[in-house]
Design a protein that fits this description.
Distance between the termini: 31 Å
Order of helices and strands: HEEEHEEHHEHEHHEHEHEHEHHHHH
Shape: globular
CATH superfamily of the largest domain: Aldolase class I
CATH class of the largest domain: Alpha Beta
Bound molecules: flavin mononucleotide
Radius of gyration: 21 Å
Structural class: alpha/beta
Length: about 350
Amino acid sequence: MSEPFLVGARPERVEGLRIGSVEVWPPIVLAPMSGVTNRTMRALYKPFGFGLTVTEFVSSNALQYGARRTMEMIDQHGVERPVSTQLWGNDPAIMAMAAKVVRECGADIVDINFGCPAPKVTKTEGGSACLRDVDRCEAIMKAVVDAVDCPVTMKMRLGWNENELVFVEVAKRAQAVGVQALTLHARTAKQFYKGNADWSKIAELKRAVDIPVIGNGDLGDPYEALQRMRESGVDALMLGRATLGNPWLVSRLHALMEGREPEATPPAPERLRFAMHHYRTMVEEWGEPRAVPQMRKHLGYYLKGFAGASALRERLMRTETAAETLAVLAETIDQLEAHTRELAVA
Ligand SMILES: Cc1cc2nc3c(=O)[nH]c(=O)nc-3n(C[C@H](O)[C@H](O)[C@H](O)COP(=O)(O)O)c2cc1C
């Protein structure tokens, strides 16, 4: 927890977020994360206090062909609603068609991705590469807004590089064509994840437009997050990496936003029990062959900052079946609890 943020960042009830017809409470959004925010994960994490969850980004081109894996990405349980489905692409007509499809499949909001810096996306002029052509951005946003009867939002970076900071220009055009909220991950595309997110730019964006602004980048502590919200004036916060394996961060932020003191993050055995629940649910819903490799990544997140994590992580990376992995986790929980009992007696 960073000291400067403790000063003044006391619990304080904040306003809810409204995106067109969609009410979002609390104003905390689960960041779209490719390979991570599938429907199982969204449904499991939502109860911790996410007011809105966003799918992994979905290729509008792939949606044209209705590929099974792509259709799975836009599917949802319903319990994680409201859900925003995120689309990427560079062709206004294809983006409009894709928006209609995801809306028919239950999206409450359609989100446009102008932020992805991955070469496989930018080499086709999609994601953050769109920011190099603000007229195209405008055409895509207008086509999507005209195609659907639900709110349309857009998520972007500051610009392609530090010499092309177009975020205010693109935001103004978004507002003019009827986009109803904006998320800014305050880095340039060229930065990828280097350096720090520049929250002064998020504050600048908030001052420049009237539609709601969602601030995103490097939020990892609930007090700091609340302070960022207050200082930048944003309407909501989006959290990504720091919540992976640590959804309790969101419960803590939710408490602060309701004017309550947050509870402490639960001890390791409880966190591992939740990891086991996540694991079992993934196996039930996706089958063992797909769940086991995906869950290796998640177990890595749950073990972050854990005493003895590296030996345990190594052991878990060698397990090949769900039963084996769950047995290692159960054994670890027993050992941790036995250790706690010994300390209590001593
Ligand atoms: C594994 C991973 C996958 C991501 N996939 C997407 C995506 O599909 N769409 C998107 O807009 N951003 C994506 N992002 C970016 C996040 O939504 C978010 O903007 C970024 O991680 C900064 O927020 P954070 O510091 O809270 O993690 C991804 C980030 C990560 C780490």
